[in-house]
Amino acid sequence: MARTASLSGFPEWLPQERLVELHVLDTLRKTFELHGFASIETRAVETVGQLLRKGEIDKEVYGLSRLQEDDDASVGEGGKSDKGDPNALALHFDLTVPFARYVVENAGYLAFPFRRYQIQKVWRGERPQEGRAREFTQADIDVVGDGELPFRYDVEIALVIAEALSALPIPDFRLRINNRKLAEGFYRGIGLTDTPGVLRSIDKLEKIGPEKVAELLKSELGASDEQASLALQLAAIRSEDTSFVEQVRALGVKDDLLEEGLIELEQVIEAAVQRAPGKVLADLSIARGLDYYTGTVVETVLVGHEQLGSICSGGRYDALASKGNRKFPGVGLSIGVTRLVSRILSQEFATASRSVPTAVLVALNNDDSWSAAQDVAAQLRGRGIATEVAAKAEKFGKQIKFADRRGIPFVWFTDDDGKHQVKDIRTGEQVDADPASWEPSAEDLHVRITTA
Amino acid sequence: MARTASLSGFPEWLPQERLVELHVLDTLRKTFELHGFASIETRAVETVGQLLRKGEIDKEVYGLSRLQEDDDASVGEGGKSDKGDPNALALHFDLTVPFARYVVENAGYLAFPFRRYQIQKVWRGERPQEGRAREFTQADIDVVGDGELPFRYDVEIALVIAEALSALPIPDFRLRINNRKLAEGFYRGIGLTDTPGVLRSIDKLEKIGPEKVAELLKSELGASDEQASLALQLAAIRSEDTSFVEQVRALGVKDDLLEEGLIELEQVIEAAVQRAPGKVLADLSIARGLDYYTGTVVETVLVGHEQLGSICSGGRYDALASKGNRKFPGVGLSIGVTRLVSRILSQEFATASRSVPTAVLVALNNDDSWSAAQDVAAQLRGRGIATEVAAKAEKFGKQIKFADRRGIPFVWFTDDDGKHQVKDIRTGEQVDADPASWEPSAEDLHVRITTA
Fold first, then answer.
1. CA–CA min distance B191, chain A (Å)
2. Which of B7, B58, B148, B169 could link B350 by a cystine bridge, Cβ 3.0 to 4.6 Å?
3. What is the pLDDT of residue B60?
4. Which residues bind L-histidine (chains A, B) (predicted)?
């Protein structure tokens, strides 16, 4: 099934592949709802001003303009494509910025802390490459508070995501967690105050290695040998338990913010050791590019597929959403559904047992039997059994082949005397059956997703 | 809950409203799958050339361009916004044109006749008005054949849609069905050969009335008084049974195509009288604006809400998709989900029993009991009971208020001795409970959608 998208960066699935994606989406939805997250969707379109509020991402945004503008088209309604106009329309590039806007707009109607999940497509005009599409689906959970948000939600969000990912047909994964306060406090403690600059350099660690990062820190941020060395020593720390705390303290740096970050990260790891053992580690090299994070930051790798990049990222943002003096701090994580599904399909981690929902094809004895066949089908559907009726009274062999090509397990026959039989076309077994009571096995009732 | 969208034409729902929309979407999906339709999604983006292939719709299309173009951006990758370029990218305005493209591209991987459902957002840059948004969700079912497609699918599609709409929390509805062959054959039979022209005039019947349509037919198409009168007599025919056939024949027009159309429409109405009584009528005024329809055409009104416009439209298209000499005729219908949901919400045809999926809030006795509370929650979730844990050990009154504001029916308490109790906060009744076995009533387990 290896096909090439007809438009580079815009993947589309075949029906059998889509069933795997649906399984992933249904599983995520179920897990999120079990944890009390409410569904919302936001419009695909934001104003450019809203999207570029945090800067540094304008290269990725798709602007909109109406192909044939009305003469009376007004600004801010997509009638103009003036890129300097903050009211011009563009497609959202993630679900966090639109969610922040939604929260501010609807604050009067929401109960805080407000927890929501949001599963939608997003668009980025980047050059497509493996694991990086221009249109892709994200599945986000976030909790947002009014004024304040207990840190416990940082812990909870990580646990919910670990549970959600564990339910998917994917290899083992690791949430790699860091804390911006910890990093910023540490850098400040050693005399490096340009936190975004240091984070940008540290973010390149996996790509260019520690020597080159040290060079960057020295050349671009004026760090001394010792400062660069300490920053790199911090970034080298990782632990599956809370031992990272002692390792950081052993570096001898004192700072209040560092201490606050250490305690926060310790809480996350402590809970994870107990409730999601082996799934989470403290990794003090995690930086996250976008700059709205203020505490917890998370990236997630599939073990053995690290080159795929992060399949789930996010963190705490205390200042993304505000309305006058009113602040709405939040914490959330975003699963890259399309990236995951692409990998599941290309590696055949999971496959669908058939290409259609149909469990039973009702065959036609002759062309006049269509209505009677629909009666049989209606009875089966009434008990939740997905059923199709043949459109033509072709030879039975051809009608069976119709089912076989789609993986439909059962074909139903009604003879001229009204006698019903159902055939399992995999075994050839054919038995008498009553449309009012016959049922397939639970295994055959719905499409099954089988994991490799 | 009457709010104004912050961007005109781009509606967004509150969590409690979204639950109603989810109910509609889940119900449609379930019905479609019971009838063997497979899910697919197509990319939101098509090339302008693909979208404008059928003409007459360019005014509605949103083109895309990257806000900050790379110098090396190549044509056809959204790097340019040259509106004359057929490789430029734009958002799809319906799901039929993208589906036709998908079928042609993936013909080698699909089993024909191929039946799919597709539920996605579409975009039209029109001036927003009541019932007409710029971003809205459509739910489509189509069956497409390879070379030929039995007419029976026209009948089946109408019946499936009638069943799907009957399952929604909406007022009574009517599928108004006509047939292009019938209309075209009739016009030809009376000497009017510009079928699109006549259809365009007839399409204005409800807006401008029969006198003005007669004038149009005469002034723009050169029709005689008698031709205009006959065309209007045809358009005035409607019947809930197959009596329309006699009414048409009584007009005395002879034409082979007319005869073919009469027989097709008769089959649809005959089946509908039996299988969806009262839901379908032959309405010979139905024209449909877009011109890719070649046989059956359908519009649907909500009884008592006719001014809302059609909530479900479509028909047979024999020439929309082709690959060289290979043709893929199809028939399908598209439900305007956003239009329906807007009306359901504004008229309160249905409401959600609570604003969150959560059935149980586990209260905290003290701040150290969070982990034990998570254990209780995990046990409940393990039996499918959506559960949240309080984030802070506030006074019980405050924790109960947290649940009450969201409509969460139950609050769970565990005292310092590990004794569990659960309180129904609507009745105040509080009883001993075991987290390993307690269950809410089936009514309270999930959010209920109650209809007015």
1. 36
2. B169
3. 82
4. 94-96, 124, 138, 142, 288, 292-293
- Structural domain boundaries enclosing B68: 45-91
Residues A317 and A387 placed together within one structural domain of the fold? no
The reply, when asked if residue A124 is annotated as ligand binding, is: yes
Q: d(Cα B155, Cα B204) in Å, to the nearest integer?
A: 27
Distance, in Å, from the CA atom of A163 to the CA atom of A155, rounded to the nearest integer, reads 13
| Within-domain flag for B5 | no
Interface predicted TM-score (ipTM) over 0.90: yes
Q: Indicate the average pLDDT of chain B.
A: 92
Whether B99 is in a domain gets the answer no
Under an 8 A CB cutoff, do A386 and B33 touch?
A: yes
Distance, CA of B374 to CA of B377 (rounded, Å): 5
**Confidence category of residue B287, pLDDT binned at 50, 70, 90:** confident
Is residue B319 less than 8 Å (CB to CB) from chain A? no
Report the phi/psi class of residue B56: left, alpha or beta, with left for phi > 0 and alpha for psi in -120 to 50.
left
Residues 6+ apart with CB under 8 A from B376: B362, B387, B412, B414, B420, B435
User: Which residue type does A74 have?
Assistant: S
- pLDDT tens digits, B63-97: 999 887 654 444 444 444 455 688 899 999 999 99
Q: Which of A331, A351, A371 is the last residue of a domain?
A: A351
A426 annotated binding-site participant: no
Among the partner residues B10, B65, B102, nearest to A12 by beta-carbon distance? B102
Same domain (yes/no): B139, B281: yes
**Consecutive 10-residue runs of chain A (452 residues): their mean pLDDT?**
78 97 98 98 94 67 81 44 76 95 96 97 87 93 97 97 98 97 96 90 91 95 95 96 98 97 97 95 87 91 94 94 93 97 96 97 95 97 98 95 97 96 97 98 96 86
Residues of B in contact with A14 (CB under 8 A): 40, 106, 109-110
Considering only CB atoms, A34 lies closest to which of B10, B79, B381, namely B381
Do A375 and A306 lie in a common domain? no
Contact B33 A357 (CB under 8 A): yes
Report yes or no: A349 at the B interface, CB cutoff 8 Å.
no
Plot region of A381 (φ>0 → left; ψ -120 to 50 → alpha; else → beta): alpha
**pLDDT, mean of residues B367-385:** 96
Residue A1: inside a domain, yes or no?
no
Is residue A9 a part of any domain in this protein?
no
Question: In chain B, pLDDT over 70 holds for what percent of residues?
Answer: 94
Same structural domain, B83 and B121 = no
Assess whether pLDDT exceeds 50 at residue B170.
yes
Radius of gyration of chain B (CA): 27
In DSSP terms, B298 is beta-bridged to B177, B314
Same-domain check for residues A386 and A257: no
Of the candidates A10, A63, A150, the beta carbon closest to that of B392 is on: A150
Which residues, numbered 178 to 237 in chain A, qualify as contacts with chain B under a Cβ-Cβ cut-off of 8 Å? Answer: none
Is B12–A41 a contact, with Cβ atoms under 8 angstroms apart? Answer: yes
What confidence score (pLDDT) does residue A83 get?
56
The answer to whether residues A319 and A414 belong to one domain is no
Task: Say what the pLDDT of residue B132 is.
Answer: 86
Beta bridge partners of A8: none
d(CA B53, CA B315): 18
Structural domains of chain B, count: 3
Task: Decide if A158 contacts A279 (C-beta within 8 A).
Answer: no
Asked whether residue B37 falls in the same domain as residue B49, the answer is no
pLDDT, tens only, A407-426: 999 999 999 999 999 999 99
A227-264 pLDDT, tens digit per residue, is 999 999 999 999 999 999 999 999 999 999 999 999 99
Q: Are residues A296 and A342 in the same domain?
A: yes
Q: For tokens 């947290």, what's the residue?
A: B402
Domain CATH for A107: 3.30.930.10
